[in-house]
Amino acid sequence: MKEFTKGILKRNPIFYLMLGLCPTLAITTAVENALIMSAAFLFVMIPSAAIISMVRRWIPRNVRIPSFIVIIATFTTIIDLLIHGFLPRFYEVLGIFIPLIVVNCIVMGRVEAFASKNPVRESILDAAGMGIGFSAAIVVVSIIRELLGRGYVEIFGYTVIPSFTRSPIGVMILPPGAFLTIGIIIAIFKKKGLLKGV
Q1: Which of 27, 49, 65, 82 allows an S-S link to 33, with CB 3.0 to 4.6 Å?
Q2: Which residue in 133, 96, 131 sits closest to 16, CA to CA?
Q3: In this structure, are residues 155 and 36 in contact, taking their beta carbons and an 8 Å threshold?
């Protein structure tokens, strides 16, 4: 269970490892974007880690990275086509960030450092923990940014948090707002002792 829980908070890929910041800055302007990106990320990360762990003994060391990329790209292509076909509005918003999951440093880092060296069960738990940690981080960042930047939170056409302020802080929707939000969250977690070694 330790493999699962470590990625959620103590070694969170965004707040602890500072990985995956590019999509975090770009897509956390709305909670619904973060939810779709989270689903896509988990769809790619968990099965990729499981398959790489299963076939790790048969992949020659000198071609392991290209082999990992092919496996990750397969799942990325599937989710890219599904979002393009069924959720075209989100496909336009998320744009290049769905195909870029192939080379996302969190996915590549975990399959190289963990899945390629460990049994399937542990690899799935590790991938799920890191994936959920990434997903939770981008959802939390997007809630704060949308609430302060727009004054309310809307998910798939439904207003979940009604008007919060009459004077939204426009900068929170811009990339500096993401940096500010992430920095404040890291400071709070560090103060509470939730992130070790940051």
Answers
A1: 27
A2: 133
A3: no
What does pTM read for this prediction?
A: 0.91
Angle at 192 between CA 188 and CA 194, to 5 degrees: 95
Closest residue by Cα to residue 106 from 91, 92, 126: 126
Six token digits for residue 24: 């975090």
Q: Which helix (H) or strand (E) holds 161?
A: strand 158-161
**Which backbone phi and psi does 194 adopt, to 5 degrees?**
-85, -25
Beta-ladder partners of 155: 158
> Which bin fits 168, alpha (ψ -120 to 50), beta or left (φ > 0)?
beta
Closest CA to 14 of 94, 76, 105: 105
Q: Model confidence over 107-154: pLDDT tens digits?
A: 999 999 999 999 999 999 999 999 999 999 999 999 999 999 988 899
Structure tokens at 11: 């070694």
